[in-house]
Amino acid sequence: YRTQHPPVFASMMTSKLLLLVCYVSLLCFVSSSSSDFSGISQPSKVSLGLYYESLCPYCSSFIVNHLTKLFEDGLISIVDLHLSPWGNSKLRSDNVTVLCQHGAYECFLDTVEACAIDVWPELRDHFPFIYCVESLVIEHKYKKWETCYEKLNLNSKPVADCLSSGHGKELQLQYAAETSALEPPHKYVPWVVVDGQPLYELPKCGIFLSCVLDGPMADYENFISYICK
Asked: pLDDT by residue (tens digit) across 18-67?
């Protein structure tokens, strides 16, 4: 588990530059494909997976301060975003009881967010709700998560039914299986995967320290640059 905070957030200018590079590259590809490769289907969207847990401070920060960049200037139109609220949670030997890294309330909120994804499958519907809940996590007000229904003018009944019926528990187990099947296995959260390739955390080193990571180095907070590539 990480014990230090992520790097300082990139400046807005850097974000805009990355978006510009991305769109120029995309326009060039589309132009080339229409003129030289007529008859060939357009490329599929770039897949982006986020494996996280609801009360992880790094996860909530990533969702609220970084992932939202996908929705600036329409970048989401070329991205297939998949959210998986399980993270470092564990199943006991009975394969039913769930143990969450940040306690029982995290298990509950993970299930709430899993239900939200299930009952509102369109990204434009469930992402604002998850964003709202994770914003409250950052503010240490996560027990007021139900206020997100009113803020977003959402009907609370579908999620409430999902929780009370036991379907939320089934969704938890599905996300558990999905996370445990990751290859390579996740090492921490948030675990960000672009087109099947995880973006490893850059080492945090002092002047007199050497740093070693198992595997290639990358910075998941710069996920937009990997989408553009």
From this structure: 555 555 555 554 444 444 444 445 668 999 999 999 999 999 999 999 99
Q: In whole angstroms, what is the distance from residue 207 CA to residue 195 CA?
A: 34
pTM: 0.78
CA distance 129 to 112: 10
Cα separation, 115 vs 121, in Å, equals 10
| Residue corresponding to tokens 């394969």 | 95
In Å, what is the CA distance from 60 to each residue of 20, 51, 65, 131, 153? 26, 12, 8, 8, 22
Query: Strands 197-198 and 191-194, how do they pair?
Result: antiparallel
Kind plus residue range of the DSSP H or E element containing 67: none
Query: What single-letter amino acid sits at 51?
Result: Y
21 burial (CB, 10 Å; 0-12 / 13-18 / 19+) is middle
Residue type, 103: G
CA distance 102 to 219: 24
Q: Which structure tokens are listed for 172?
A: 């938890």
Q: Are 193 and 199 in contact (CB under 8 A)?
A: yes
